[in-house]
Amino acid sequence: MKSLAEFIAEKREKAGMSVTGLSRRSGVSADIIEDIESGKELFLSVTTRQKLARALKLQPIEIKSYEKVINDISVKQETIDDLKEMILEGEEDLYCPICGSKLVVRVAKMYDLEDNPVYHPKAHCSQCTFQIK
Fold this sequence. Notes:
Elements: H1 4-14, H2 19-26, H3 30-37, H4 46-56, H5 60-64, H6 77-88, E1 103-111, E2 117-125, E3 131-132
Antiparallel strand pairs: 1-2, 2-3
């Protein structure tokens, strides 16, 4: 079976588009498309999948069928709480508790009803479906 990288590259080439052309047509950045085609991205967000499907004249389910699937492995809440605390403390070199790949982290700044800042740690794995919302 083909990889997601091979599938997207093949469909893009068959449609006669460059990476830049697919980026323009889909609204997905060329960097993300390059990451997908190089095999760095194995799982796509719903939005990215829909944009690429529309641009390549596919159904999103066709793309999803090539994405890497990791069995639903539960992560202890204590581990997630520890990761959240480390993100809020500014640590950037954090790794996925499921597959061990690097986590992409950020802190979302929001405001409560009294206009006080509230910080929410966010993270997603660069290789699997693990995420902290």
